Amino acid sequence: MEILNKKRGFLSGNDGVVRGALESGIGCAFSYPGTPATEIGEVFAEVAKETGIYFEWSVNEKIALEAAAGAAFSGVKSIVSVKHYGLNVALDSLLPLAYLSCPLVVVVTDDPGCFSSIQTEQDSRWFSKLGKIPILEPSNSQEAKEMTKEAFKIAWQYKIPVILRMSTRVCYSRSLVDFGLIIKPAKGKFKKFEFKLGAARTVELHKNILEKISEIGKLSESSKLNFIEKSEGMTGIITSGVTYEYVKEVLEKLNLKLPILKIGLCYPFPEKLVKSFLKNVCQAIVIEELDPFIEEEIRKIDSIKIHGKDVFSETGEIKPEQVLEGIAKILGITLPKPPQIEVEKRLSFLCPGCPHRSTLYAVKKVLGRKIFSGDIGCSMLGIFSPLEMQDFVVSMGASVGIGHGISKTTGEKPVIFIGDSAFFHAGMPALLNLVYNKADALVIIVDNRWTAMTGHQPNPNTGINAMQEEAKSVDIAEIAKALKADFVKSSNVYSFDQLCNDIKEAYAVKGVSVLVANGECRLVVVRNAARKGIMLPKFEIVKQDSKLEELKNFGCPAIQKEDGKWFIDKDICWGCTVCKQIVPSCIEISK
Asked: 175, 221, 279, 558: which sits with the fewest CB atoms below 10 Å from its CB?
């Protein structure tokens, strides 16, 4: 792999994090798949055995963080990588770990613009203030590598967790990165440390962490991560993260030379450095994603005229053209009118042959319009037309908890959808809560055997682990039985009539019904078939009649209508056979 080259490589920001961790001598890395952080884990999984480190896809982010903390307490450098929602999940343990002097690096990837996120557009920098945890923010792949190394230095020098905050553009942008030496990981040995229970001890630890932050604050004033690019201009620009790269591009395009303060170590805030920068300018422009995190700190320390969120939006990612327009507006520069480009929009959709399509369509066919409680994963794409089978999506496992609350307060029986990975992540205790509190709900666990939406990472259901070693495959139906659900059954989603019967039977049971809808992700099936030289069946429509209109509700992208006639695009048909079962008189196997 390029990441293991000796001198340099063309890396993404995510790759840079991995390389920086390897150059820091890490022994363990932990993660749960969540884009835009997923590729950090993917690369660790690929290089783990060759570099002598341990990597795992944990069942959720909280457990990933705790495992990393255990390694750190044992004297082994460890790192955990999560997306912004994942940090929310892990927060329960992250804040106490700061009190307990745990030297840990936590990579969090924010997603301004919600390119791979649908619940919230959050700015994770605020967790640094909440937990009194230092936070670093790289702008490019080289900085991602260097700041990862710096994060480990700070973590181990001050015995404190350190957050490395990335954003989508930094995660995926590529550039040349100069390498240092990869350091062989150390062996772990747990050394007992003083641990006392009690309010007085917690208050004492709180004071201790404040003292650490004060010391690290002195470091931030002179850190190479915070620097000034001097110029004669009287308008100064203060920026961090990927917007620094945009500022450099824009100033070159406008042929402007303005002083820039780049802040890479955002918390503790380099107050003295900012003050010295502001002394030499008449006004400041603060450009950052998403919230006015830096801007608010500047307003506390100086009354200078500041432009920030009055010009640049707090929602969506900041793009280079927005930086151009914002700086031009503030400086009174007239720009030529940009050309209007219209890009055709399309909704997301389930893949051809997706097992979830069969399940969602069968539920709609059998039960009609019910309360549909949705969860994170591929099945949430069923919210779109023509299926329209998710009334809401909140977070992993929330479909079960929210469905329970709806059932208890309305008397209606909801249909709750949750994926296999989400079930292991947060669904098991939620299902136990349904059983314990005598709920009346149908829980359909859409089991495609992989954590598919983020790129087919294995989970406890798959039979292999992150390092491609054989692992125990956990039977979801057996878990549901152990949790004492009133009805448990597994169903093959590609046997459509039987699936419909199973849904009808499960919904009729009073109490907690669990139907495990089994069907391996079709993309994996197609790939494996191609590797083995197996030809999957293809289908075609041989007769046009009114029954074919039902295929419109099924919503397979391979089935299309043109000039009033239905046809199947054989180039994207993946041979799942469900369409033939729905309209058997009109579809047959192609010769």
From this structure: 279
